[in-house]
Amino acid sequence: MLPDSFLIFIVLAPGLAAAIAGLLPRYIGDRGAMVVTTATVGLAGILSLYQLFAYAAGMGGEHAVHAADTGHAASYVGGHVIKLMTWIDVGQFQADWAIRVDAMSIVMMAVITSVSGLVHLYSWGYMADDPHRARFFSYLSLFTFAMLMLVTADNFIQLFFGWEGVGLASYLLIGFWYTKKAPNDASIKAFVTNRVGDFGLALGIMAVFLVFGSVEFEPVLSAIKENAEVVPLALAEAGNVRELIIPFLNWDVPALELIGVLLFIGAMGKSAQFFLHVWLPDAMEGPTPVSALIHAATMVTAGVYLVCLVSPIYEYAPFAAAMIALVGSVTALYAATVGLAQNDIKRVIAYSTCSQLGYMFFAAGIGAYEAAMFHLFTHAFFKALLFLGAGSVIHGAHHEQDMRNMGGFAKYMPLTYGAMMIGTIAIIGLGLPHVWGLSGFFSKDAIIETAYAAGTAGVTFGQLAFWFGIIAALLTSFYSWRLVYMTFHGPRAEVAHDDHHDDAHAHDDHGHHGDPHESPLVMLIPLGILSVGAIFAGWYFYDAFVGHDYKAFWDGAIYTAKENTVLKDKYDVPGWVFWAPVTVTIIGFVLATFTYLFNRGVGKRIADNRGPLWSLFYNKWYFDEIYQATLVKGSAWLGNIFWKGDKKVIDGIGPDGVSNLVKWGSRRLSAMHTGYLYHYAFVIIGAALIFGAILFWRSGGAG
User: Fold this and answer.
1) Residue 494: what pLDDT?
2) How far, in Å, CA of 83 to CA of 7, rounded?
3) Hey, CA dihedral for 635, 638, 641, 645, is it positive or negative?
4) pTM of the predicted model as reported, rounded to 2 decimal places
5) 152 φ, ψ to 5°?
């Protein structure tokens, strides 16, 4: 295992590199900023991968002992904490800047830094002509640093800092081309949508402190595992935490259910789950390397990570767990249906991300946290490969993104085509049960098998998750091969379909400018490295993550109340369950091949007919239109009412009313200043008579 000094470098160095690139571009220039950030994050990636392989080889335990060798590290079950400094120390409210080292953080550090390092390198080619490269690379490293702070936190406050940090970085990167309206709108949409989820997360953290009197993971999660007695703040009665009831909005609710639901609302926003998913496709307005980083290794994985990290909460909060399973199942199916009808190459892959996140969440909701983390891990490689492959296509096609204007690209960019084929086979989960497959085959099938096992064991929504997962696998295969055939096979399109263009796209030089061409070597090297991960990561790490060695690997970092019967039971499912995902994957391949390779005009005819089902999928189930008509216009209408009420009533009676009264009185008094002596004499005599009468009356009354 790595010494603590190396772990500190992995976490903090990207933040320092971001500061150097962002604050000193005048002195180091664009190339200097690119070198500093890429070298730093690349080195962190190499160290993180070494740590992951070393940890997997030792299968846990060793790193907990390592803490005794350092003066600033504290041991706990399953890992140790490197304390950097005290951050908050106010009574019971205490939080440190720290680096938590356990199986969860080791996996996430490897995913984040390795993918981010390759994205940095890839961006040397993709952003070669951009005049603001120093700013771009600074934002990339800032994003990486914020995510690392999130996944290595040992308390909810540091996690929230990283959580908001990736939200800020995503806003900056999605709106990187800020001179254009579409990226600005997309960045604001992402920022506002995530604020909705983050409000739930903030309330969840407050509820944790209310119940446990602490925001540190170790005492909170240990209390749940042991069913310890706690005394909630501001509540008189103590109680065992699993049975504790607390008031919320005039209802008495189980404390763990309330905390679990609120934390999951935060996860829904960050990981783009159903109802709060609308920001994710619009995030494609940022540069393609940003899409790869957001979708594969950083922002959208944060919600899955949070749910798995606090697994003890959901083990004793069945309603919250069922909510996660239901939302994840619906998201997996919903996003897959929308992916069928999209024509922008990046949007198809974006909706596939949304769908795959649904798989991860319903796995966590049924108690298969290890399977959720396994799919998160493998998904990072093949999703980064697909996005960077799409970026290579866009770069080689002169910034064309509409697949209807592509076709026959395989002969122009064979290396990109090979990488995209690997990514496609990985994401659809093609393989032979008990024999061989690419990464997605191992991780997605593990989720589907555990969902079936959970359903037969009576876990809420387990059967629903299984069947929705099977249908989503069929649709994923179809739209993935559709992308391959429309982009790389068939005749090359010569004329854009003007009546079908999607709303938004990136560059002003949209359209064909000569033949497509292969991308430069600096963009192809990351594709090659990611291809290796997409091929072998699932096979190599299967036993460690979800196989026979999962207990030794996770080493207490993930907790399940029932000895993880869901994972063990997946070995006992009927044989047809193992073959069902492969079968529907092949069916999806055959349908896509018939529709988009051998009968290429069929898909266009379906789109031209604009049937109700196609319209529903193409318009993303009309979520944007519904939200625009209700939430956006409703908020504007309500705000207008309050603004006018405030202006007319509060301001009218208050400050505006008083000032108007003073103005009215001053105008009347000023009218008396005529400049004529007899007017002033009349006023003086009148005033004297009035005051004299008052004095006479008062003196008479007194006598």
Assistant:
1) 58
2) 12
3) negative
4) 0.88
5) -105, 5
